[in-house]
Amino acid sequence: MTAQAARVVFLGPPGAGKGTQAKLLEDRLALRQISTGDILRRNVAEATELGRQAKPYMESGGLVPDALIVGMMEPELARSDSFLLDGFPRTVAQAEALDAALRRLGKPLTAVVLIDASRDVLVLRLTGRWTNPRSGRTYHSEFNPPKVHGVDDLDGGPLEQRRDDTLEVVSERLATYDAKTAPLIDYYRKTGLLVTIDGLKPIDEVSADVLRAISGENGAAA
Ligand code: AP5
Fold first, then answer.
1. pLDDT per residue over 129-144, tens digit each?
2. For 149-207, how does the pLDDT look when each residue is reduced to its tens digit (9 = 90+)?
3. What is the dihedral of CA 38, 44, 50, 52, to 10 degrees?
4. CATH code of the domain containing 131
5. Which domain holds residue 195?
6. Active-site residue 190, yes or no?
């Protein structure tokens, strides 16, 4: 582990701002974002075997089975010394598999950042979100609009609304988070690595808080 190595997990409900913050930090720090959602969506778009198996779970707001996710993530973890895990782990079984893989690689986590926000705001954010399917960069029609409607500010590519951002699927995703992923808050609290960030603040303020959490400035206390 080099002095600057940072291996970070982003936890938080759908719409809390994990992807938004990961993209901003990836641009500012030498920290590779590994987004399970983006990898899965690429596999679905390319109609790979993994994508074919994952698609029905993603479209219904459920979780893709642990074995598929762990198999997909192991080579990703080995590729870099510093990384930001966005959307993984999402179950206790995935967290245990992550611990075991990082132990084997000699790359312990350095921080777990929980970005949280209230339910009503999460629903508004997801149903108004516009995504660049190639880069995963996100905008919001009201809270974070692109300069030109439907066009990515940075690469000029077209923006789309995700198929799982309908009100019905969003409700299911939030219920899945409560049942399967929220238990990870206690799991990581016990490690002393968890820092909780208020995701209701403006995007740049959340970024500043996340940067402090990653650098350990505000201590690892939930
Ligand atoms: P994934 O793509 O990971 O979706 P998610 O966790 O539901 O997260 P989101 O991308 O919806 O939310 P976010 O927190 O990144 O919010 P964002 O920054 O975009 O997973 C999709 C599916 O894949 C899952 O449902 C599951 O089926 C499967 N999957 C993925 N990982 C898996 C795993 N490990 N195991 C099993 N299955 C897995 O922000 C949302 C909006 O709000 C944007 O429009 C943004 O502009 C805006 N916004 C962000 N921050 C702010 C702010 N501070 N103020 C105002 N607006 C803001």
1. 999 988 889 999 999 9
2. 999 999 999 999 999 999 999 999 999 999 999 999 999 999 999 999 999 999 999 99
3. 150
4. 3.40.50.300
5. 7-212
6. no
**What element of type H or E holds 218?**
none
The label of the residue with tokens 């997801």 reads: 126
Residue 177 Cβ inside 6 Å of ligand 1? The answer reads no
Q: Is residue 31 part of a domain?
A: yes
Distance, in Å, from the CA atom of 30 to the CA atom of 17, rounded to the nearest integer, reads 20
For residue 19 and ligand 1, the question of a CB distance below 6 A is answered with yes
**CB of 139 closer than 6 angstroms to any ligand 1 atom:** yes
Residues 96 and 131: their CA atoms lie apart, in Å, by: 31
Predicted confidence (pLDDT) per residue in 93-114, tens digit:
999 999 999 999 999 999 999 9
Question: 3-state DSSP call for residue 184?
Answer: helix
- State how many domains the chain has: 1
162 carries an active-site annotation: yes
Q: Is 163 a catalytic residue?
A: no
Q: How far apart are CA 180 and CA 218, in angstroms?
A: 28
Residue 221 maps to a domain: no
In a domain, 152, yes or no: yes
* pLDDT, tens only, 67-103: 999 999 999 999 999 999 999 999 999 999 999 999 9
Phi-psi region of 15 (alpha: psi -120 to 50; beta: other; left: phi over 0): left
Q: Is residue 1 included in any domain, yes or no?
A: no
φ/ψ bin of 100: left (φ > 0), alpha (ψ from -120 to 50), beta (otherwise):
alpha
